[in-house]
Design goal:
Blueprint: E1 11-14, H1 22-26, E2 32-36, H2 39-42, H3 46-56, E3 60-64, H4 73-86, E4 90-95, H5 97-112, E5 121-122, E6 132-136, E7 148-153, E8 158-163, E9 171-174, H6 184-203, H7 209-231, H8 236-255, H9 260-272, H10 276-291, H11 296-305, H12 315-332, H13 348-356, H14 370-382
Parallel strand pairs: 1-9, 2-3, 2-4, 4-6, 5-8, 6-9
Antiparallel strand pairs: 7-8
The structure holds fe (ii) ion (FE2).
Fe (ii) ion (FE2) binds near residues 193, 262 and 280.
Length: about 375
Amino acid sequence: MQNFQFLLPTRIVFGNEVINQIGEEAKNFGKRALIVTDKGVLKTGYVERITQCLAEVQIEAEVFANVDPNPRDKSVDQGSKKAQQFKADLLIGVGGGSAIDTAKAIGVIMQEGGKINDYEGLDRVNKPITPLIAVPTTAGTGTEVTFWSVITDTKRKFKMSIGSPLMAAKVALVDPTLTLTLPKDITAYTGIDALVHSIEGYTATLSQPISDSLALTAIELISNNIRKVYANGKNLSARYEMMLASMLAGIAFGNSDVAAVHCMGEAMGGLYDTPHGVSMAVCLPYCIEYNLISNPEKFAKIAQALGENTVGLSTLAAAKKCIVAIRDLLGDLNIPSARTLGLQKQDLKKLAEAAAANVAVESNPRMLDQQDFLSMFQRAYDND
Ligand SMILES: [Fe+2]
Protein backbone atom coordinates (compact mmCIF):
# COMPACT_ATOMS: atom_id res chain seq x y z
CA MET A 1 0.00 0.00 0.00
CA GLN A 2 1.50 3.32 -0.99
CA ASN A 3 0.49 6.90 -1.65
CA PHE A 4 1.41 8.09 -5.11
CA GLN A 5 0.89 10.73 -7.77
CA PHE A 6 0.70 10.43 -11.52
CA LEU A 7 1.04 13.27 -14.00
CA LEU A 8 0.76 13.42 -17.78
CA PRO A 9 0.28 17.00 -19.01
CA THR A 10 1.00 16.06 -22.64
CA ARG A 11 -1.86 15.24 -25.01
CA ILE A 12 -0.99 12.15 -27.03
CA VAL A 13 -2.01 11.74 -30.66
CA PHE A 14 -0.85 8.28 -31.71
CA GLY A 15 -1.13 6.33 -34.95
CA ASN A 16 0.10 5.70 -38.45
CA GLU A 17 0.23 8.93 -40.52
CA VAL A 18 -0.84 11.22 -37.67
CA ILE A 19 2.05 13.45 -38.79
CA ASN A 20 -0.40 14.87 -41.33
CA GLN A 21 -2.39 16.39 -38.45
CA ILE A 22 0.45 18.63 -37.32
CA GLY A 23 -1.02 21.80 -38.88
CA GLU A 24 -4.29 21.33 -37.01
CA GLU A 25 -2.43 20.75 -33.76
CA ALA A 26 0.04 23.59 -34.25
CA LYS A 27 -2.54 26.29 -34.95
CA ASN A 28 -3.78 25.99 -31.35
CA PHE A 29 -0.46 27.30 -30.08
CA GLY A 30 1.25 29.73 -32.44
CA LYS A 31 1.93 31.29 -35.82
CA ARG A 32 5.71 31.05 -36.09
CA ALA A 33 7.27 27.66 -35.55
CA LEU A 34 10.92 26.81 -35.03
CA ILE A 35 11.46 23.19 -36.08
CA VAL A 36 14.30 21.69 -34.03
CA THR A 37 15.81 18.64 -35.66
CA ASP A 38 19.08 17.03 -36.73
CA LYS A 39 20.86 16.51 -40.02
CA GLY A 40 19.89 12.83 -40.23
CA VAL A 41 16.19 13.64 -39.98
CA LEU A 42 16.57 16.44 -42.56
CA LYS A 43 17.47 13.78 -45.16
CA THR A 44 14.22 11.86 -44.59
CA GLY A 45 11.89 14.53 -45.98
CA TYR A 46 9.78 14.62 -42.78
CA VAL A 47 10.65 18.26 -42.16
CA GLU A 48 9.35 19.27 -45.61
CA ARG A 49 6.15 17.36 -44.94
CA ILE A 50 5.72 19.17 -41.65
CA THR A 51 6.53 22.58 -43.16
CA GLN A 52 3.94 21.97 -45.86
CA CYS A 53 1.25 21.01 -43.32
CA LEU A 54 2.10 24.16 -41.35
CA ALA A 55 1.92 26.37 -44.47
CA GLU A 56 -1.59 25.06 -45.15
CA VAL A 57 -2.74 26.64 -41.89
CA GLN A 58 -0.63 29.82 -42.41
CA ILE A 59 2.08 28.96 -39.92
CA GLU A 60 5.55 30.16 -40.88
CA ALA A 61 8.41 27.80 -40.10
CA GLU A 62 12.17 28.05 -39.73
CA VAL A 63 14.45 25.05 -39.27
CA PHE A 64 17.25 24.64 -36.73
CA ALA A 65 19.10 21.41 -37.50
CA ASN A 66 22.35 21.90 -35.59
CA VAL A 67 21.62 19.19 -33.01
CA ASP A 68 24.27 16.58 -32.19
CA PRO A 69 23.60 12.94 -31.21
CA ASN A 70 24.46 13.77 -27.57
CA PRO A 71 22.93 17.25 -27.58
CA ARG A 72 25.16 20.00 -26.24
CA ASP A 73 24.65 23.19 -24.29
CA LYS A 74 26.17 25.11 -27.22
CA SER A 75 23.42 23.88 -29.57
CA VAL A 76 20.83 25.05 -27.06
CA ASP A 77 22.44 28.52 -27.10
CA GLN A 78 22.46 28.65 -30.89
CA GLY A 79 18.90 27.35 -31.19
CA SER A 80 17.62 29.83 -28.60
CA LYS A 81 19.22 32.72 -30.51
CA LYS A 82 17.66 31.50 -33.73
CA ALA A 83 14.24 31.18 -32.04
CA GLN A 84 14.51 34.72 -30.68
CA GLN A 85 15.62 36.20 -34.04
CA PHE A 86 12.75 34.44 -35.80
CA LYS A 87 10.33 35.48 -33.02
CA ALA A 88 9.13 31.89 -32.72
CA ASP A 89 6.03 31.34 -30.59
CA LEU A 90 5.98 27.58 -31.10
CA LEU A 91 8.61 24.84 -31.07
CA ILE A 92 8.39 21.56 -32.95
CA GLY A 93 10.97 18.93 -31.97
CA VAL A 94 11.37 16.33 -34.70
CA GLY A 95 13.75 13.43 -34.21
CA GLY A 96 15.15 11.16 -31.56
CA GLY A 97 15.73 12.22 -27.99
CA SER A 98 18.48 14.65 -28.96
CA ALA A 99 16.25 16.89 -31.08
CA ILE A 100 13.29 16.80 -28.71
CA ASP A 101 15.47 17.36 -25.63
CA THR A 102 17.16 20.29 -27.36
CA ALA A 103 13.74 21.74 -28.23
CA LYS A 104 12.69 21.48 -24.57
CA ALA A 105 15.89 23.21 -23.48
CA ILE A 106 15.45 25.97 -26.08
CA GLY A 107 11.92 26.43 -24.72
CA VAL A 108 13.36 26.97 -21.24
CA ILE A 109 15.83 29.62 -22.41
CA MET A 110 13.22 31.41 -24.57
CA GLN A 111 11.09 31.96 -21.46
CA GLU A 112 13.68 32.36 -18.74
CA GLY A 113 16.92 33.50 -20.38
CA GLY A 114 20.42 32.58 -19.22
CA LYS A 115 22.14 29.31 -20.03
CA ILE A 116 20.64 25.83 -19.88
CA ASN A 117 23.38 24.88 -17.39
CA ASP A 118 21.68 27.23 -14.87
CA TYR A 119 18.66 24.90 -14.72
CA GLU A 120 20.37 21.58 -14.05
CA GLY A 121 18.44 19.31 -11.69
CA LEU A 122 14.80 18.90 -10.80
CA ASP A 123 12.34 21.81 -10.65
CA ARG A 124 14.80 24.64 -11.30
CA VAL A 125 12.57 25.89 -14.14
CA ASN A 126 9.98 28.47 -13.05
CA LYS A 127 7.87 29.19 -16.15
CA PRO A 128 6.16 26.94 -18.70
CA ILE A 129 8.38 26.56 -21.75
CA THR A 130 7.36 27.90 -25.17
CA PRO A 131 4.60 25.56 -26.47
CA LEU A 132 6.21 22.42 -27.86
CA ILE A 133 4.94 19.72 -30.18
CA ALA A 134 7.13 16.61 -30.00
CA VAL A 135 7.39 14.34 -33.02
CA PRO A 136 9.57 11.30 -32.29
CA THR A 137 11.25 9.55 -35.23
CA THR A 138 12.79 6.75 -33.16
CA ALA A 139 11.13 4.22 -30.85
CA GLY A 140 13.34 4.62 -27.84
CA THR A 141 13.64 7.73 -25.74
CA GLY A 142 10.01 8.35 -24.83
CA THR A 143 11.02 11.98 -24.31
CA GLU A 144 7.87 13.13 -26.13
CA VAL A 145 5.96 12.32 -22.91
CA THR A 146 8.54 13.06 -20.19
CA PHE A 147 9.45 16.23 -18.32
CA TRP A 148 13.17 15.70 -18.75
CA SER A 149 15.85 16.99 -21.06
CA VAL A 150 19.38 15.58 -21.02
CA ILE A 151 22.01 17.99 -22.34
CA THR A 152 25.79 17.63 -22.33
CA ASP A 153 27.70 20.29 -20.42
CA THR A 154 30.61 20.59 -22.84
CA LYS A 155 33.05 22.01 -20.28
CA ARG A 156 32.48 19.21 -17.76
CA LYS A 157 31.86 16.52 -20.41
CA PHE A 158 28.88 15.61 -18.23
CA LYS A 159 25.31 14.86 -19.19
CA MET A 160 23.07 17.18 -17.21
CA SER A 161 19.47 16.27 -16.45
CA ILE A 162 17.06 19.18 -16.44
CA GLY A 163 13.57 18.26 -15.27
CA SER A 164 10.27 19.98 -14.54
CA PRO A 165 6.62 19.29 -15.45
CA LEU A 166 6.75 22.82 -16.95
CA MET A 167 8.97 21.35 -19.71
CA ALA A 168 6.40 18.83 -20.95
CA ALA A 169 5.37 19.01 -24.60
CA LYS A 170 1.82 20.28 -25.22
CA VAL A 171 1.26 17.53 -27.77
CA ALA A 172 3.12 14.33 -28.59
CA LEU A 173 2.40 13.46 -32.19
CA VAL A 174 3.54 9.85 -32.29
CA ASP A 175 3.58 8.31 -35.74
CA PRO A 176 5.09 4.80 -36.06
CA THR A 177 5.48 5.20 -39.85
CA LEU A 178 8.28 7.72 -39.18
CA THR A 179 10.44 4.87 -37.87
CA LEU A 180 10.15 2.71 -41.01
CA THR A 181 13.39 4.04 -42.51
CA LEU A 182 15.56 3.81 -39.37
CA PRO A 183 18.76 1.80 -39.93
CA LYS A 184 18.91 -1.49 -38.05
CA ASP A 185 21.65 -0.51 -35.59
CA ILE A 186 19.77 2.62 -34.51
CA THR A 187 16.59 0.53 -34.33
CA ALA A 188 18.34 -1.87 -31.95
CA TYR A 189 20.01 0.81 -29.80
CA THR A 190 16.90 2.92 -29.39
CA GLY A 191 14.77 -0.16 -28.74
CA ILE A 192 17.13 -1.21 -25.94
CA ASP A 193 16.88 2.30 -24.51
CA ALA A 194 13.09 1.84 -24.33
CA LEU A 195 13.60 -1.54 -22.66
CA VAL A 196 15.91 0.06 -20.10
CA HIS A 197 13.32 2.79 -19.43
CA SER A 198 10.68 0.17 -18.76
CA ILE A 199 12.90 -2.04 -16.57
CA GLU A 200 14.26 0.91 -14.60
CA GLY A 201 10.84 2.61 -14.44
CA TYR A 202 9.38 -0.63 -13.08
CA THR A 203 12.03 -1.28 -10.44
CA ALA A 204 13.12 2.23 -9.36
CA THR A 205 12.46 3.19 -5.75
CA LEU A 206 9.90 5.75 -6.97
CA SER A 207 7.89 3.18 -8.94
CA GLN A 208 4.14 3.10 -8.33
CA PRO A 209 1.14 1.09 -9.54
CA ILE A 210 0.30 3.11 -12.67
CA SER A 211 3.87 3.32 -13.92
CA ASP A 212 4.33 -0.36 -13.04
CA SER A 213 1.52 -1.51 -15.29
CA LEU A 214 2.68 0.69 -18.18
CA ALA A 215 6.27 -0.49 -17.77
CA LEU A 216 5.41 -4.21 -17.71
CA THR A 217 3.27 -3.83 -20.83
CA ALA A 218 6.15 -2.01 -22.50
CA ILE A 219 8.59 -4.83 -21.63
CA GLU A 220 6.26 -7.41 -23.18
CA LEU A 221 5.74 -5.33 -26.32
CA ILE A 222 9.49 -4.81 -26.72
CA SER A 223 10.23 -8.48 -26.09
CA ASN A 224 7.73 -9.50 -28.77
CA ASN A 225 8.82 -6.97 -31.39
CA ILE A 226 12.40 -5.76 -31.07
CA ARG A 227 13.92 -8.70 -32.95
CA LYS A 228 11.29 -8.34 -35.66
CA VAL A 229 12.06 -4.67 -36.34
CA TYR A 230 15.79 -5.39 -36.27
CA ALA A 231 15.35 -8.21 -38.78
CA ASN A 232 13.00 -6.25 -41.03
CA GLY A 233 12.61 -2.54 -40.51
CA LYS A 234 9.63 -2.43 -42.86
CA ASN A 235 7.46 -4.55 -40.54
CA LEU A 236 4.92 -1.83 -39.76
CA SER A 237 2.92 -3.72 -37.13
CA ALA A 238 6.12 -4.42 -35.19
CA ARG A 239 7.20 -0.78 -35.64
CA TYR A 240 3.79 0.30 -34.31
CA GLU A 241 4.16 -1.83 -31.19
CA MET A 242 7.72 -0.65 -30.58
CA MET A 243 6.60 2.99 -30.84
CA LEU A 244 3.77 2.28 -28.42
CA ALA A 245 6.17 0.54 -26.04
CA SER A 246 8.65 3.41 -26.18
CA MET A 247 5.90 5.90 -25.34
CA LEU A 248 4.45 3.78 -22.50
CA ALA A 249 7.95 3.34 -21.09
CA GLY A 250 8.42 7.12 -21.29
CA ILE A 251 5.24 7.73 -19.30
CA ALA A 252 6.34 5.09 -16.79
CA PHE A 253 9.85 6.36 -16.10
CA GLY A 254 8.65 9.98 -16.31
CA ASN A 255 6.51 9.29 -13.24
CA SER A 256 8.93 6.85 -11.62
CA ASP A 257 12.57 7.32 -12.60
CA VAL A 258 15.49 5.71 -14.34
CA ALA A 259 18.32 4.22 -12.31
CA ALA A 260 21.85 2.74 -12.42
CA VAL A 261 21.90 1.83 -16.13
CA HIS A 262 21.28 5.46 -17.03
CA CYS A 263 23.85 6.63 -14.48
CA MET A 264 26.50 4.43 -16.14
CA GLY A 265 25.39 4.89 -19.75
CA GLU A 266 25.17 8.67 -19.44
CA ALA A 267 28.64 8.76 -17.89
CA MET A 268 29.92 6.94 -20.99
CA GLY A 269 27.96 9.21 -23.34
CA GLY A 270 29.36 12.30 -21.60
CA LEU A 271 32.98 11.12 -21.88
CA TYR A 272 33.05 9.29 -25.22
CA ASP A 273 30.03 10.71 -27.04
CA THR A 274 28.76 7.16 -27.59
CA PRO A 275 25.09 7.02 -28.68
CA HIS A 276 22.69 6.88 -25.75
CA GLY A 277 20.97 3.58 -26.52
CA VAL A 278 24.11 1.52 -27.10
CA SER A 279 25.72 2.99 -23.97
CA MET A 280 22.69 1.70 -22.04
CA ALA A 281 22.89 -1.70 -23.74
CA VAL A 282 26.48 -2.41 -22.70
CA CYS A 283 25.76 -1.53 -19.05
CA LEU A 284 22.37 -3.24 -18.74
CA PRO A 285 23.34 -6.85 -17.82
CA TYR A 286 25.70 -5.74 -15.04
CA CYS A 287 23.10 -3.48 -13.43
CA ILE A 288 20.43 -6.20 -13.57
CA GLU A 289 22.80 -8.69 -11.94
CA TYR A 290 23.57 -6.15 -9.24
CA ASN A 291 19.97 -5.08 -8.66
CA LEU A 292 17.97 -8.26 -8.81
CA ILE A 293 18.28 -9.31 -5.16
CA SER A 294 16.68 -5.97 -4.19
CA ASN A 295 13.32 -7.09 -5.56
CA PRO A 296 13.28 -10.68 -6.84
CA GLU A 297 9.47 -10.59 -7.27
CA LYS A 298 9.66 -7.75 -9.78
CA PHE A 299 12.67 -9.14 -11.61
CA ALA A 300 10.87 -12.50 -11.87
CA LYS A 301 7.96 -10.68 -13.55
CA ILE A 302 10.39 -8.97 -15.92
CA ALA A 303 11.85 -12.37 -16.85
CA GLN A 304 8.33 -13.62 -17.63
CA ALA A 305 7.54 -10.48 -19.67
CA LEU A 306 10.77 -11.13 -21.59
CA GLY A 307 9.40 -14.56 -22.49
CA GLU A 308 11.39 -16.75 -20.08
CA ASN A 309 9.72 -19.91 -18.79
CA THR A 310 9.80 -19.62 -15.01
CA VAL A 311 7.35 -22.40 -14.16
CA GLY A 312 8.48 -24.40 -11.13
CA LEU A 313 11.31 -21.99 -10.29
CA SER A 314 11.78 -20.19 -7.00
CA THR A 315 11.24 -16.42 -7.18
CA LEU A 316 14.97 -15.78 -7.05
CA ALA A 317 15.75 -18.37 -9.72
CA ALA A 318 13.01 -16.84 -11.90
CA ALA A 319 14.50 -13.37 -11.33
CA LYS A 320 17.91 -14.63 -12.44
CA LYS A 321 16.37 -15.66 -15.75
CA CYS A 322 16.31 -11.92 -16.56
CA ILE A 323 20.05 -12.04 -17.10
CA VAL A 324 19.73 -14.96 -19.51
CA ALA A 325 17.00 -13.16 -21.45
CA ILE A 326 18.91 -9.88 -21.67
CA ARG A 327 22.20 -11.45 -22.74
CA ASP A 328 20.35 -13.48 -25.35
CA LEU A 329 18.64 -10.35 -26.69
CA LEU A 330 21.84 -8.29 -26.82
CA GLY A 331 23.47 -11.14 -28.75
CA ASP A 332 20.61 -11.35 -31.27
CA LEU A 333 20.85 -7.59 -31.85
CA ASN A 334 24.65 -7.69 -32.30
CA ILE A 335 25.24 -5.13 -29.57
CA PRO A 336 29.01 -4.43 -29.43
CA SER A 337 31.09 -4.86 -26.28
CA ALA A 338 31.82 -1.87 -24.07
CA ARG A 339 35.47 -1.94 -25.14
CA THR A 340 34.57 -1.90 -28.83
CA LEU A 341 32.53 1.15 -27.98
CA GLY A 342 35.63 2.91 -26.64
CA LEU A 343 35.62 2.07 -22.92
CA GLN A 344 39.20 2.48 -21.65
CA LYS A 345 40.78 1.12 -18.49
CA GLN A 346 42.25 4.45 -17.40
CA ASP A 347 38.78 6.05 -17.50
CA LEU A 348 36.94 3.58 -15.28
CA LYS A 349 37.39 5.66 -12.09
CA LYS A 350 36.33 8.87 -13.80
CA LEU A 351 33.25 7.12 -15.20
CA ALA A 352 32.33 5.68 -11.80
CA GLU A 353 32.60 9.17 -10.33
CA ALA A 354 30.32 10.62 -13.04
CA ALA A 355 27.81 7.77 -12.62
CA ALA A 356 27.71 8.32 -8.86
CA ALA A 357 26.97 12.03 -9.45
CA ASN A 358 23.90 11.28 -11.59
CA VAL A 359 20.54 12.47 -10.20
CA ALA A 360 19.07 8.98 -10.72
CA VAL A 361 21.40 7.24 -8.20
CA GLU A 362 18.86 7.64 -5.40
CA SER A 363 16.22 5.84 -7.46
CA ASN A 364 18.22 2.66 -7.94
CA PRO A 365 16.46 -0.21 -6.14
CA ARG A 366 19.70 -1.43 -4.53
CA MET A 367 21.84 1.16 -2.77
CA LEU A 368 25.11 1.79 -4.50
CA ASP A 369 28.12 4.07 -4.39
CA GLN A 370 31.07 4.99 -6.56
CA GLN A 371 32.88 1.74 -5.70
CA ASP A 372 29.89 -0.33 -6.85
CA PHE A 373 29.81 1.59 -10.13
CA LEU A 374 33.54 1.00 -10.51
CA SER A 375 33.05 -2.76 -10.10
CA MET A 376 30.33 -2.74 -12.75
CA PHE A 377 32.43 -0.69 -15.18
CA GLN A 378 35.31 -3.07 -14.55
CA ARG A 379 33.06 -6.02 -15.41
CA ALA A 380 31.80 -4.26 -18.53
CA TYR A 381 35.43 -3.62 -19.49
CA ASP A 382 36.34 -7.27 -18.91
CA ASN A 383 33.13 -8.22 -20.76
CA ASP A 384 32.49 -10.94 -18.21
FE1 LIG B 1 17.36 6.52 -21.97
